[in-house]
Amino acid sequence: MSQARATAPVARSIFLLMVSLIAWELYQGLRAGVPAPEGSWALAPVDLVFLVLLPALTAFAFTRLFLIVGQTARGTLNIYAAVSSPLAWMFWVGLGVGLIGHGIHIAGHAIQRAMPEIFEQGEFAAKIAFLDIEAGYLILGIGFFFATLAVLLAGLGAGRQISGPERLLFVLGSLATYGLVLIYLGVGGGQVIPVIAASVVLTAVSLWNMPPVEITRDPIGAFVIPGTFLAGVTLIIWTVVVGGQPTWP
User: Fold this and answer.
1) Following CA atoms 134, 137, 142, 144 in sequence, which dihedral angle do they give, to the nearest 10 degrees?
2) Is residue 58 part of a domain?
3) Spatial CA neighbour of 207 closest among 237, 238, 187, 228
């Protein structure tokens, strides 16, 4: 079997993850300013469906990518590599923690939107805001980081090299996914220092395992590193300019 045929599922799995992350981002952005629905429902039925379906699709895409890069790197998929190895522990725990963080954020955000005005300035509102932003986004970011790190360590160099339009697509997808997600977590989620640290770690791991000129030719590297690196640099510059935690204009 040729290397191109053997490693083609890596590129397809990355594309599925890219599409699911972009769809999740777009939906979150489009529904961000929508008021709470009338009646007893804290979330509109469409939100309830898509805020479960899109994260589930993203988790499936992450899982598919992790299993495929493990199979490609070893030539076969075995139970130890999939569920018992250190990288497997890192991936599955990270994925679970990330989904829990998303659930905390969604619950806190729904309660905050439905909160009567009389409570908006009180201690209870501050605790709900903490669940919505600080705790929810921090836990989501930690899970996202460890799942990404596991995929990066398992899959960097496993796929065939990419070039031309495919390489450009992966780099642009990295900016639209990892770049935007990390900047939003840093600014909107108030986690600028953890996000910068995560960007440094992921970039350093990639450079340790692969020369800089090869990173964007590798499918995993091209999808993760450009957006991650640019987000870290952007947050560092933004933090220096404002002299502290940056906020949305």
Assistant:
1) -170
2) yes
3) 228
Q: CA 77, 224, 175: angle at the middle one, nearest 5?
A: 145
Domain with 51 in it: 3-242
> Is residue 43 one of the residues assigned to a domain?
yes
- The total of structural domains in the chain comes to 1
Report pLDDT digits (tens) over 198-245. 999 999 999 998 888 889 899 999 999 999 999 999 999 988 887 777
Rounded (to 5) percent helix, strand, coil in the chain: 80, 0, 20
- 209-225: string of b/e by CB count within 10 Å (b at 16+)? ebeeeebbbbbbbbbbb
The 10 Å Cβ neighbour count of residue 204 is 10
pTM: 0.88
Has residue 22 been placed in a domain? yes
Is residue 249 situated within a structural domain?
Answer: no
Query: In sequence order, which residues have a C-beta less than 8 Å from that of residue 141 and are 6 or more positions away?
Result: 101, 185, 189, 191, 194, 195, 198
